[in-house]
Amino acid sequence: MIQNEKEYDGEVPDLIPARMLNEFTYCPRLCYIEWVQGEFVDSADTVDGRFQHRRVDAKPDKLPDEQETFHARSVYLTGPDMGITCRIDLLEGEGNQVTPIDYKRGKAPKIPEGAYEPERVQLCAQGLVLRENDFDCTEGVIYYVRSKQRVTIPFDDDLVDRTKELIAALGEMARGGEMPPPLEYSPKCVRCSLVGICLPDEVNILRETEKEGAEPPGRVRRLLPARDDEIPVYVVGQGQTIRKRGDRLEVWSREEGKVSDAKLREVSQLALYGGVGITTPALVELLQRGIPVCYFTHGGWFYGISQGTSHKNVELRMRQFQCAGEKMRSLELARMFVSGKIRNCRTLIRRNDSLAPKEILGNMGSLIREAEEARSAESLLGI
Ligand code: SF4
Questions:
Q1: How far is the CA of 184 from the centre of ligand 1 (A)?
Q2: Of 121, 125, 127, 192, which one has the greatest count of Cβ atoms within 10 A?
Q3: Whole-model pTM?
Q4: For residue 177, what are the CA distances in angstroms to 10, 17, 33, 114, 170?
Q5: Residues having CB within 6 Å of any atom of ligand 1
């Protein structure tokens, strides 16, 4: 049975994508955030990985031939009994005997197993799906692009048992609907692109301090989330219109023609002030890319937002609505947002302007304290 990899859509899925099995083996929380909550953040590693896969897909196919070795690229296959759906980078075979080949961007690790467990398990899951579809499949190959090495992984009983065990555990995690805790001081977190969402050390410390008779909090590592290259675009010129041309947003004015432009991939959000308009193609493109469009009055008062449907994190939304319904909890959070924002502004000024007037820094310090102690949402708005 061939079909596209099924994404989690809020219901317990019948089929688990094999690559999610890789993530789950690496870190169950990573898999939960990515698959169940639908959150994803790119890092240099993930972008490079996609690029390497594009190169694999671009190579021409050879048609299957009963007498000769055949190669098929990007093969989508499902195994309903195994509960797995997968995309096989390259399928190599002769007659009914096939070998799945998975491309990995890095170098082959120098370990006795030839590859790390998440990669072996992902490949083995592909092998099991092939077996379910009546192919003979006893081993797979991981091709490491950087070291140009083929590493053969035999699908022995131990690996097959481990793969089935992990498939069952992943299904249970998804059905349970509870996010697994972060790994504890794991070196894996250092390279994890979701570190900024997961906040492993912070969450672990909070969990510890909530326990009775807890010890003082431990150390929080400086795990830096991937740097965001995108920036907001603010359009304030009255009567101007935003249009889309190719991969760019253009700002047009009736009198002067095109007055400015920005690359779409560098835009984090579009803020329109007062009488600035936007064409439907530009709005659709922004919504498809998950870039929010915010509308403000001429004087900067926020009155609405257009956002695409890319966000699937239902749990987050439920918690936000829950908080919004509790007045004191909302105020507590709002105080933290506002005081944190002023604190960050003050830090930025101090970092970038060694001659920043002491009076301004002092005023900002007072505003931070006032925001932290605001007695109501209304006085916080005043600050
Ligand atoms: S930061 Fe660490 S604990 Fe969190 S998802 Fe990534 S690997 Fe898992």
A1: 9
A2: 125
A3: 0.72
A4: 10, 18, 11, 34, 11
A5: 27, 29-30, 182-183, 186, 188-189, 192, 194-195, 198, 200
CATH number, domain containing residue 236: 3.100.10.20
Cα of 9 from ligand 1 centre, angstroms: 22
Domain tally, the chain: 3
Domain for residue 213, yes or no?
no
For residue 16, give the nearest of 132, 183, 166, 179 by alpha carbon: 166
Q: Are residues 332 and 281 in the same domain?
A: no
Take atom 2 of ligand 1 and give the residue whose Cα is closest: 189
What range does the domain containing 298 cover? 231-306
User: Residues 218-272: pLDDT tens digits?
Assistant: 777 877 766 667 899 999 999 999 999 999 999 999 999 999 999 999 999 999 9
pLDDT tens track for 138-156: 999 999 988 999 999 999 9
In a domain, 265, yes or no: yes
Residues 169, 252: one domain? no
Measured CA to CA, the distance from residue 117 to residue 126 in angstroms comes to 14
Report the atom number in ligand 1 closest to the C-alpha of 195: 1
